[in-house]
Design goal:
The longest helix is centred in the N-terminal third of the chain and has 20 residues. Strands 2-1-3 form a 3-stranded mixed beta sheet. The protein has a domain of 120 residues: Cytochrome Bc1 Complex, Chain D, domain 2 (Orthogonal Bundle). It is built from 10 helices and 3 strands. InterPro entries: Cyt_c-like_dom, Cyt_c-like_dom_sf, Cytochrome_c-type_DH. It comes from Alicycliphilus denitrificans. Keywords: Heme, Iron, Membrane, Metal-binding, Transmembrane, Transmembrane helix.
């Protein structure tokens, strides 16, 4: 009646399962083998990746985008405006009422080109009145752009929408860069009026 405690514990254990009781279904094995064979044949009989007939056929030149403009080439002011300015002043030039001033019909855009050049070069913070409405905000400096690019933007906004002012030459921006050692934006319209 008395059994060894180890023997009793062993009798309570179940037998370990064996795969022979429930082997992998033959159909699943055939599918797996067929997929491996198909993959091997596919890899061996397809063309190299650089000659793919079904993949992306664009060339490296097409993927790299347009080439940078050569020095002295005409600058697309409209494209630069869309990339740099339209987020705030909108593509229509009407700005956002109460937030960003309009460029369409703006006295600052159609006025003295020197003032517009300095606005683009240095930016403006504080209060500015445009078309009789006061705006409080900040416009960043675009000093990182080249003189031709700034002239392209200025010429575009001076001649677009209802604006009919003359184009601006890159030389004006070069002259204004050299004439000023300003490192901060203009403090509202009072500082800009001092330029006139």
């Amino acid at each position: 009646m008395s059994q060894d405690p180890v023997t009793r514990a062993q009798q309570r254990e179940n037998e370990d399962p064996e795969e022979a009781i429930r082997p992998m279904p033959l159909s699943a094995l055939l599918v797996a083998v067929a997929m491996v064979l198909w993959a091997v044949v596919y890899i061996l009989y397809t063309e190299p990746l650089d000659l793919s007939q079904w993949g992306d056929q664009r060339t490296r030149a097409e993927l790299s985008g347009p080439a940078p403009a050569a020095p002295g080439a005409a600058v697309d002011g409209k494209a630069l405006f869309a990339a740099q300015c339209a987020a705030c002043h909108q593509a229509t030039g009407l700005g956002l009422p109460g937030v960003f001033p309009p460029l369409d019909g703006s006295e600052w855009v159609q006025g003295e080109p020197r003032v517009l050049a300095n606005i683009l070069l240095h930016g403006v913070t504080g209060e500015i009145t445009v078309k009789g409405t006061k705006y409080q905000g900040a416009m960043p400096s675009f000093q990182q752009l080249g003189d031709a690019e700034l002239a392209g933007i200025a010429s575009f906004i001076r001649g677009s929408w209802s604006n009919k002012a003359d184009a601006v030459q890159p030389e004006l921006f070069a002259k204004e860069r050299k004439a000023s050692d300003r490192a901060t934006p203009f403090e509202g319209e009072a500082a800009l009026k001092a330029l006139q």
